[in-house]
Model the fold of this input.
Amino acid sequence: MVITEEYEYVPTTPWVTYILIGLNVIIFFMELLDPQIVYRYSLIPVFVLQGQALYTLVTHMFLHADFIHIFSNMYALWVFGDDCESVFGRKTFIIFYLVCGVFAGLFHSYFSVYVFRGGDIPCLGASGAIFGVIAAYAFLFPRRPLRIWAYYGVIRVKALTFALFYALVETLYAIFLGPYGGIAHTAHVGGFTTGVIMTFILKFTVLRGKEIPP
Done:
C-alpha cells in the first residue's frame, strides 16, 4: 500500500522530519554492522514496567528490524510529518513525536504484561510515534484528500476517514493478536491515541488562533 497526498502544504522546510528520517536510516545501518544494538536498545515490556532500562522507551523508536520495516515507517513520516511540523513548529513537533513514541511504548508494555500475560518479546520501530503523527495529520487536515495505491487500484479518501479506519483495524488486531504476530499493534493504538489527545490539547493552546490550511 502506497499513500500520497493530492494536496501539499509545506510553507517551511521540515528540518525535524528530515533529521528524524536521516537519524533512523543511520542507526539502521549501524544495526547492520553491530546487531547487538537491537538487543541492547529494544524495548522489553516487562523490564520497563519493573522500572528497568527506561531509556528504551526512547531508543526503541530509532531501531528497525529490516529494510521493509524502516522503509514503510520513514515513508509514512515523510508523507505526514512535514505538514504537521509546519503547523506545530519544529520544537513542538519533535516533543510531540517523542511523547507519542514514549506513550506508545508504555501502552504496549502495560497491555503485554497485564492483559496478555507476556512482556518478554522485544519491541522496536518508529511506528508508535508515526501513528501519533498520522492522528495529528488527520485532525489538522481532516478533509485533505489522500491517494491509496493498493493492489486492486487507486482509492481516494479523506485523511480523517483513512486515519480512523486504520486505527480501527489496528485496534482489532491488538485485541485479537495482542503483542504476538510480529507487529506491535498495541503500540500503534497507543501512539494514535496519544496523538489524538495531544493534537486537541495543542489546538486549544499553542495553536489557538493560528490559521491552518485545508
Summary: The domain at 14-142+160-203 is CATH 1.20.1540.10 (Rhomboid-like fold). Residues 16 and 94 are 7 Å apart (CA to CA).
